[in-house]
Amino acid sequence: MDEMLIKLGENAVKAERELAILNVTVKNDALKATADALVNRADEIIKANEEDVENAKKNGMSSALIDRLLLTKERIEGMAEGLMQLISLPDPIGEVLSMKKTAGGLMIGKKRVPLGVIGIIYEARPNVTADAFGLCFKSGNACILKGGSDAINSNKKIVEVIKDALKSLNLNENSIQLIESTDREITKQFMKMNKYVDVLIPRGSARLIKTTVEESTVPVIETGSGNCHVYVDEFADIDMAVNIIYNAKTQRIGVCNACESLVIHKKVLAEALPKIAAKLKEKNVEIRCDEEALKVMPELKAATEEDFYTEYLDYIISVKSVDSIEEAIEHINTHNTKHSEAIITKDYSNANKFLNEIDAAAVYVNASTRFTDGFEFGFGAEIGISTQKLHARGPMGLNELTTSKYIIYGEGQVRK
Amino acid sequence: MDEMLIKLGENAVKAERELAILNVTVKNDALKATADALVNRADEIIKANEEDVENAKKNGMSSALIDRLLLTKERIEGMAEGLMQLISLPDPIGEVLSMKKTAGGLMIGKKRVPLGVIGIIYEARPNVTADAFGLCFKSGNACILKGGSDAINSNKKIVEVIKDALKSLNLNENSIQLIESTDREITKQFMKMNKYVDVLIPRGSARLIKTTVEESTVPVIETGSGNCHVYVDEFADIDMAVNIIYNAKTQRIGVCNACESLVIHKKVLAEALPKIAAKLKEKNVEIRCDEEALKVMPELKAATEEDFYTEYLDYIISVKSVDSIEEAIEHINTHNTKHSEAIITKDYSNANKFLNEIDAAAVYVNASTRFTDGFEFGFGAEIGISTQKLHARGPMGLNELTTSKYIIYGEGQVRK
Q1: Positions of CATH 3.40.309.10 in chain B
Q2: Which of A79, A122, B141, B142 could form an S-S bond across to A203 if both were Cys, CB 3.0 to 4.6 Å?
């Protein structure tokens, strides 16, 4: 393995042992110091960012991507604000989740501790650098960051500023480390550093996440895409359905918890679909229908089977009509990405059935799928939304960046 | 991907949807029926096993491995007994771990649900087949098993018996499926079935686990080796230390929670080491010492640096002497496998320091490391002991074969 990576790994392990036992006041003071430093040294950061932006323009990067790369004074203040918000959150570390006495008199407790070293792989969004550091640091973890090559100068400067702030408080500057190499081979090796890295979190496009899952031997927390459904039950309040669908589809289109597909019971199709279509027309949403739905509104477009698997992230929605709640559940479980699903119903048993049988991170009765979010769930911060089942499922806050260890108090017990 | 594997995957997903919503009484009845069937059809199983044993002998398998492969009437009764024990355990599924109301009036609950489809890869120990099925089934998961090729006839028969018992109760027989192919390429493909398999658990040798971690794209729960330490503090009760060390080293030597290395404070080295050595001599334990310890007992063997990294699983133990508890913690955190570690001390602060700063799944004060075990911890069953930090750490019982989903009760809420 690359010498530089080994060095980063050793540094991170050393740093995490110090971080794991820091008092929350020390951690909060450091978050304040790093937030202040980012604002105070905004000019330096903007200058480094200008280099990246210039190079990106030369390389023909699209204006949308350049906008994500660009740092302004306001955006840097936003990064600092993100760190400040973490201060108000309780320390996730040290809580003893349970403590029980065994027949043999041992007291066995389960204590929340940091994961250790967290690797974060992301694209050319330099704001993630400060954000990821803050979440890892507050939860007592050291982080090793691998950002997009196009943001390398911005990231180097942001990391330098944070390291300086940590040093000024006599804290281990290797609490945050950046892989400065832009060699893809190095990134591949980074994904196999099981000896030093406890978990990898890829943040970004579906392709980035897929590559990380495929290449990595280090455990990965997968944050994924959302092909989210709203099911309009035969016992739905149709006005409520219209309102929720309008919100879930159009309130913000480019996000994983937006609704991409409707499932409508045939008994209410003729009543519900025209009302839904009329409301969605306000935002010019294109509606792609199955055969039954087309019979109700022949002026709409036809859906293909592929549509039912598609996360549009756009002003498009598909419609599937069903004969029963069972068919609705079967359709959703087959086509969804296990993210967020909602039923609109006034029927008690159907609500329960949907909650029980839908396989997803978040299952809603009579509410918009857009609520699947760490802030909305009251976590105060979010590192992403997990669509895998291991370790964390759904919005991940600070607690999801921790693990546990058993602490056992004995009085000389031996095993018989 | 291989057609047969895809079929197994599809079957498993279908089965797990049925399993996820089974009532606990139905699950318990099925466990009883499978246990009875194993005993009633023991002759068939033994006959199939005889084929495997004959082949193994022809292939020159060692007698120790043949013993692990061999099934007798008693051993089959033991398998059935294991299934019966699961009946008395509470259903891990369906519990709502928390339920909170948001400012917007949503009720957000976190509900325990099965992982889904669990893949188990193991060696030629046919008892694991029934054991793994029972744990997965009680926790509402479908399992796909890949056992060692040498046990293929035994496994086929055991799976047939279990499937028949499930069918007799009109339950989905694909709750348990066996990969019958002994082609290694198939096993490799099995490790990449992310679309169908939620988690892989390798059970067996360090090599099997390493291969699974390296080859798999499906999330893996790693159960690992244990290089466990007992630290004799300067404030230790020496008699207690002797007793605990004797237990931790010799009560059972071939297990991951056995003690492999001692760390002794130099202030008590001259008093403690001879007493420990005298007691360990009862079992002819070989003691390998660092320089300081050798000065106390020159008749013992010298340890190399490699000794301090070695999990002997034998009547051998290493001794490292230290100047301080800090040095002890540093030594252990550097050399351990994050399994189980113990301090023997009468000092309050040193006990706390050790509990806080040692990085391991289980950290003990004044007790034997041998207690790290699902049964000893009161879980009633165990699928293994996780030495990784993601999802589960330490002994894994039924709860560790579950995940959660958020269930959200609304009254028409949309996001602002």
Answers
A1: 228-371
A2: A122
* Mutation to test the A interface, candidates B405, B409, B411, B416, most A Cβ within 10 Å: B405
**Which residue type sits at B276?**
I
Q: Which of B102, B219, B412 sits opposite A244 (nearest CB)?
A: B412
CB interface of B with A, residues 54-73, below 8 Å: none
Tell me if chain B has a CB within 8 Å of the CB of A243: yes
| pLDDT score recorded for residue B3 | 95
Count Cβ atoms below 10 Å from residue B405 Cβ, excluding itself. 21
Contact between A367 and B408 using a beta-carbon 8 Å cutoff: yes
Smallest Cα distance from B60 to chain A, Å: 34
Q: List the single best residue of B217, B389, B402 to mutate versus A (max A Cβ within 10 A).
A: B389
Interface of B with A in 373-412 (CB under 8 A): 376-378, 388-391, 393-394, 403-412
Residues of B in contact with A240 (CB under 8 A): 412
B235 half-sphere exposure, CB direction, 13 A CA radius: 10
Compute the nearest-CA separation of A225 from chain B (Å).
14
pLDDT of residue A224: 76
Which tens digits make up the pLDDT trace of B327-343? 999 999 999 999 999 99
Residues contacting residue A275 through CB under 8 Å, at least 6 positions apart: A238, A239, A242
User: Does B405 contact A394 at a Cβ distance shorter than 8 Å?
Assistant: yes
Helix %, strand %, coil % for chain B, to 5? 45, 20, 30
Report pLDDT digits (tens) over A223-254.
878 999 999 999 999 999 999 999 999 999 98
**Residue B398: which of B189, B185, B113 has the closest Cα?**
B113
Contact: A366, B412; criterion CB under 8 Å: yes
Q: Which fold has domain A3-222+397-408?
A: Aldehyde Dehydrogenase; Chain A, domain 1 (3.40.605)
Q: Is B46 on the interface with A (CB under 8 A)?
A: no
Mutate to test the interface with B, among A93, A221, A371, A385 (most CBs of B within 10 A): A371
Of B198, B371, B410, the CB nearest to A364: B410
Amino acid in the structure at residue B351: A
Domain with CATH 3.40.605.10 in chain B: 3-222+397-408
The CA-based angle A408-B336-A172, given to 5 degrees, is 90
Q: Which CATH number among 3.30.70.60, 3.30.70.2190, 3.40.309.10, 3.30.390.50 corresponds to the domain B228-371?
A: 3.40.309.10
Tell me the per-residue pLDDT of A160-200, one tens digit each, with 9 for 90 and over. Answer: 999 999 999 999 999 999 999 989 999 999 999 999 999 99
Q: Name, in order, each residue with C-beta under 8 angstroms of A132's C-beta and a sequence gap of 6 or more.
A: A120, A122, A143, A145, A201, A203, A383
Comparing CA positions, the residue from B21, B36, B405, B44 lying closest to residue B175 is: B21
- Which residues in chain A are contacts of B368 at CB distance < 8 A? 410, 413-415
For the cut 90, the answer to whether the pLDDT of residue B223 exceeds it is no
Interface check for B102 against chain A (CB to CB < 8 A): the answer is: yes
> DSSP letters along A234-265, please?
TT--HHHHHHHHHHHHHS-TTSTTSEEEEEEE
The predicted model gives B146-169 an average pLDDT of: 97
Asked if B272 contacts B232 with a C-beta cutoff of 8 angstroms, the reply is: yes
Q: Which chain A residues have a beta carbon less than 8 Å from that of B348?
A: none
Question: Tell me: the pLDDT tens digits for B346-390?
Answer: 999 999 999 999 999 999 999 999 999 999 998 888 889 999 999
CA dist., res. A140 & res. A171, Å (int): 12
